[in-house]
Amino acid sequence: MKTRSKSNPGQNKKGHTAEVVGNLRDISEADRLKSKLLKKNKELEIIIDSVPAWIFYKDKENRFIHVNKAFCEVMKMTNGQLEGVSCSDLYPKEQAEAFWKDDLDVIATEKPKRNIIEPMKTEQ
Fold it and tell me: What is the pTM of this model?
C-alpha cells in the first residue's frame, strides 16, 4: 500500500510541538489509474503519429491543441512550436479565415466535413 500523509503540528505556548494531527490516504489506486492513463495517452500518440495524413485538433479560439508528426513535417515545426498557435499565425489571412470558417461550421453543426480539399501553399 502506498500512502501519502499530511500533518499539522500543534504548538504549545513555548513554541514546542505539543501534538501532531494528520491523516493517511491510500494512493495506490490513484497511482495505478494515472499510470494506466499515461500509457493509453502514449499509445494514442503513437497511433496518431503513425498516420501519414495530417491530424490535428484545435480549440474554439482556433489554436492547435495537438498535431501529429505528418503535420509537423509539412509545417517544418515541432509539435511544441505548433501547439497553442492559431491558424492566422501560420497562414495568409484569406487562407486562415477559410479554414476557420470550415471549423466554425463543424462546431455549429457537430458534423464532420469529409473529403474536402483545401489548398495550402508549402515549400515542397
Answer: 0.67
